[in-house]
Amino acid sequence: MIVFLNGTSSSGKSSIAAELLKVLDTPYFAMAVDDFGAMRSVERTLELDGPAQQELLRRTRAGFHRAVAGMAQAGNDVVVDYLLSEPWRLEDCLDVFTGLDVVLVGVHCPPDELERRERARGDRVPGTAVKQLQSVHQHGLYDFEVDTGAGSPRECALAIKDFVGRAPAQRAFDVLRG
């Protein structure tokens, strides 16, 4: 199974993923797109011009989708920490994850809390997460949703665990595929 956490930067996806690894009944792998970006040569990436850099980032994200699918196809359960901030990302995931059991979880957080978290982190451009709110949830359909402004990462993880145990057969990814 793939538990796919979709939300803006600083919304709490990574914290929820860490808690899910502790509370889920079977072993899961946590896979975050940020980890894939961290594997890339920073110096060589910065040397690229705008279009070449954008293409590298697109290939990185497409590779991430395929890595997640590969882990799941090999029989592993995966918690995905990601943001569907561009339409092609969702379209590619819908295609690449065909035949896989995916529970799509919307991770929400109020704008003022996103801004507070960005300031506290210090490693994000202020306002990025609030801007992402316009695109990350644009597809509008989830199997389950959590609000990290109202619940702790552990509370959200426990709610997700409970939902996963009783999730309906038809999932958001199936509906979005059409």
What share of the residues does DSSP label as strand, in percent?
Answer: 15-25%
Strand order of the largest sheet: 2-3-1-4-5
First-residue to last-residue Cα separation: 21 Å
Shape estimate = globular
Order of helices and strands: EHEHHHEHEHHEHH
Supply Rg: 16 Å
Low-confidence region ranges? none
Mean pLDDT: 93
Which architecture name does CATH use? Answer: 3-Layer(aba) Sandwich
Write down the CATH class: Alpha Beta
For the report, how would you describe the main beta sheet? 5 strands, parallel
CATH homologous superfamily descriptor: P-loop containing nucleotide triphosphate hydrolases
Task: Please work out how many helical segments DSSP would assign.
Answer: 9
User: What is the total number of structural domains?
Assistant: 1
- Tell me the CATH topology: Rossmann fold
Protein structure class:
alpha/beta
Helix fraction by DSSP (H/I, runs of at least 4): 40-55%
The strand count comes to 5
Tell me what you see in this structure.
This protein is α/β, with parallel strands linked by helices and 178 residues long. The chain has one domain: Rossmann fold (3-Layer(aba) Sandwich), CATH 3.40.50.300. 53% of the residues lie in helices and 15% in strands. The chain contains nine helices and five strands; from the N terminus they run βαβαααβαβααβαα. Strands 2-3-1-4-5 form a five-stranded parallel beta sheet, with helices on both faces. The longest helix is centred in the middle third of the chain and has 24 residues. It is globular, with a radius of gyration of 16 Å. The two termini are 21 Å apart. 31% of the residues are buried.
